[in-house]
Amino acid sequence: KAGVTQTPRYLIKTRGQQVTLSCSPISGHRSVSWYQQTPGQGLQFLFEYFSETQRNKGNFPGRFSGRQFSNSRSEMNVSTLELGDSALYLCASSLAGGQGVEKLFFGSGTQLSVL
Amino acid sequence: GEDVEQSLFLSVREGDSSVINCTYTDSSSTYLYWYKQEPGAGLQLLTYIFSNMDMKQDQRLTVLLNKKDKHLSLRIADTQTGDSAIYFCAERVGSNYQLIWGAGTKLIIKP
Predict the structure, then answer these.
(1) Among partner residues A50, A102, A109, which is closest to B42 by beta-carbon distance?
(2) What is the pLDDT of residues B44-71, one digit of tens each?
(3) Residues B49, B63: contact at Cβ < 8 Å?
């Protein structure tokens, strides 16, 4: 069974640009969540989608948005990039979507550098 | 408020046992998790424990939960170089989907 796939693996952008990151969950998983990981702030929850609906949202500005398609694939968009947006963006999928033990399966992440 | 705390670094000698500690504040936790992140990779679920359990053992891993002190620990027996990674503790409160994460403990193995 294929794991969680995130593309691209690396991305370099300049301030003010926008970026779209993609995440393909494990087949059959309906929940996809996004995290930002930085050395200083650790792992910060961005948002979670379940069956194409945003179910939970973290404390990030409106420049960060996402969506989920009917095949459960998800995209995350960051507009008007700032230097502080440089981070590893991780996507995780889960089967149960909030039930029981809720095991998260993570992709390898997209390393975003904003210059 | 909700908070999960971990030490940032732990250094152990190869072959020794590693004990990574985590404290949490919310007493209504349902599940507590340990995830491992190797360099350049995403997180991988190592093990988890249900809040009504005190201990769980899985091969070289032992999880201890002290609910009174809100303390969780992960013991890795016979630590190997392949255990070098960042270990994250996470808490699930009630039926909330969103987990509360610790900052991660970097495990450094000395030869």
Answers:
(1) A109
(2) 999 999 988 999 999 999 999 999 999 9
(3) yes
**In chain B, which among 46-105 make CB contacts under 8 A with chain A?**
48, 50, 88, 92, 95-99, 101-104
- Cβ-count burial of B33 within 10 angstroms (0-12 exposed, 13-18 middle, 19+ buried)? buried
- Within A2-63, strands assigned E span 5-7, 10-13, 19-24, 31-38, 42-50, 53-57
Quick check: A1 pLDDT over 70? Answer: no
Contacts of B95 in chain A (CB under 8 A): 98
Task: Specify the pairing of strand A110-114 against strand A10-13.
Answer: parallel
A20 vs A15: CA distance, rounded Å? 14
Start-to-end CA distance of chain A, whole Å, equals 37
* All residues at 6 or more sequence positions from A9 whose CB lies less than 8 Å from its CB, including other chains: A108, A109, A110, A111
Contact B45 A56 (CB under 8 A): no
